[in-house]
Amino acid sequence: MSPRYLVNCSIIFTELPVLERPAAAKAAGFDAVEFWWPFATAVPEDTEVAAFVAAVRDAGVQLVGLNLFAGDMPAGERGVVSDPGRVREFQDSVEVAVGIGEALGVSGFNALYGNRSAEYSPAAQDELALANLAHAAGRAASIGAGVFLEPVSGADRYPLRTASDVMAVLDQLDGAGVTGVGMLADLYHLAVNGDDVPSVLAKHLERVTHVQIADAPGRGEPGTGGLPLDRWVASAYRAGYEGWVGLEYKPATDDPFGWLPRELRGSAGVS
Fold first, then answer.
1. What is the pTM of this model?
2. Is the domain defined by 5-264 classed in CATH 3.20.20.150?
3. Per-block average pLDDT, block size 10, for the chain (271 residues)?
4. Among the options 34, 77, 221, 248, which is catalytic?
5. Cα–Cα dist 24/12, whole Å
């Protein structure tokens, strides 16, 4: 099976308004996209949600993945899953996301764990995270979707930094009988945080439900750094990975997709 690529429209096409980005991805030759939480609040107005759904549909692309509400990302927040002070926001955003997912056929929701807070004990934050992930997984399952859990770099207070950190949470969920949560393997984050990416893919691939890529250093497109992304992605597919690969990088050249021939961007010709 050949890699299936999609565009993360929250980090690429940022020169365009959010609602114009799905059409830009289609014009660039892609059939699928993903987004971080595309609204300013956990509970956007119905008109905002309707406009977002219409923009994706009108562009003729598939919305494969959608982040759940993650707080103020530009300010450094990285999710609210483990924040006892924001349970209502998280659960409300799950309902909004599931509604969007049902309308557009989303297959996975990325739940950023959240930074450690000095206001609550780590144990209390982790206990809440398990409950919130179980809740999100149950709601996602109602529309045939799953939940992603991601190691992240560049956020010192974010506790899930390696594949092992995520696996520890998944093991606890498994022990509690919670299904439908898998690892989002962002190869950039894993590499930057010191994980041996080939070993991670070999050991944990059956629990990897989504893959994202960017090169390092710099988090630009493949070829702007030194990571062997082509080799890593090919090995994942050879080993049985069947999901999408999200292009979640900060464009560093005039043509952010110049590394990928146009005939390999759409899913129609994927074997």
1. 0.96
2. yes
3. 95 98 98 98 98 98 98 96 97 98 98 97 98 98 98 96 98 98 98 98 97 98 98 97 97 96 78 41
4. 248
5. 10
